[in-house]
Amino acid sequence: MDATAETSRAETPRGDSGVRRGGLVAEVSAATALVVVAGLFHPIGGWAAAVLAPLAAVAAGRTGPPPWKGRATWAETARVACVAAGVSLAAVAAAQVLLGRLHFRAPVEALGAAFWCAAFAEEWFFRGYVQGRAAPTASPRDLRLFGARFGMPELLSAALFAAAHAPRLGLGAVAILAPGAVFAWARSRTGGVAAPFFLHVVFNAWGKNL
């Protein structure tokens, strides 16, 4: 999370936190609904809405632009993305072994622009806008997981990310909570969208083997 967001977390008064939380949750939930509706007509419409909604919020003075790298160095961003991807994919592979269906298919979809556009649009929106906009809902009681704060902003971005997949996956969208939480953690750990974006690309590529 960038310095502005961290400051916002620290300075948000707790007296009216309930009202503020409710307003922020309603705002990002409504934006997510618009993105989902746009995506129902055509995937490109959903991606466009996911990119434009944060820009509209910035233009309206509701929030700052989603940070790309954040406060982390590029080396740290790469390290966080690689470690998180390695641990997560090892867990998935272990589950496949236990289920007796370990296999691998080359992710040829990664050669197409749509593969990268989808990951960028979703991370720009859910980790860049939703998680950043929800930063004031954080609490001093939030968890600390491997050097990163994990609280309401991270849970909200993961939950709305999963909910956005419900029209296509139905109840299977619940499974999207896990990678969404990992992406949210990476955003919190580095302060930027770059690490969760690259993680998202890896998950999408590996997901073709599930």
SSE topology:
Layout: H1 3-11, H2 17-41, H3 43-59, H4 74-99, H5 113-133, E1 143-145, E2 148-150, H6 152-164, H7 166-169, H8 177-190, H9 194-207
Antiparallel strand pairs: 1-2
Helix content: 55-70%
Output the number of helix runs: 9
Largest sheet properties: 2 strands, antiparallel
Classification by helices and strands: mainly alpha
Taken as a percent bin, the fraction of beta residues is: under 5%
Gyration radius over CA: 17 Å
Q: Stretches where pLDDT falls below 50 for ≥5 residues?
A: 1-15
The overall pLDDT average reads 80
Q: What form results from the Cα inertia axes?
A: globular
> What's the arrangement of strands in the largest beta sheet?
1-2
Overall tally of domains: 1
- The SSE order reads HHHHHEEHHHH
**How many distinct beta strands?**
2
Report, as a whole number of angstroms, the end-to-end distance.
31 Å
How would you explain this protein's 3D organization?
Helix 4 packs antiparallel against helix 8 (177-190). The chain has helices spanning 3-11, 17-41, 43-59, 74-99, 113-133, 152-164, 166-169, 177-190, 194-207; strands at 143-145, 148-150. The chain starts with a helix and ends with a helix. The chain is globular and about 50 Å long. Strand 1 (143-145) and strand 2 (148-150) form a beta hairpin. Strands 1-2 form a two-stranded antiparallel ribbon. The model is unreliable at 1-15 (pLDDT under 50). The chain has 210 residues and is an all-alpha fold. It is built from nine helices and two strands, in the order αααααββαααα. It has one domain.
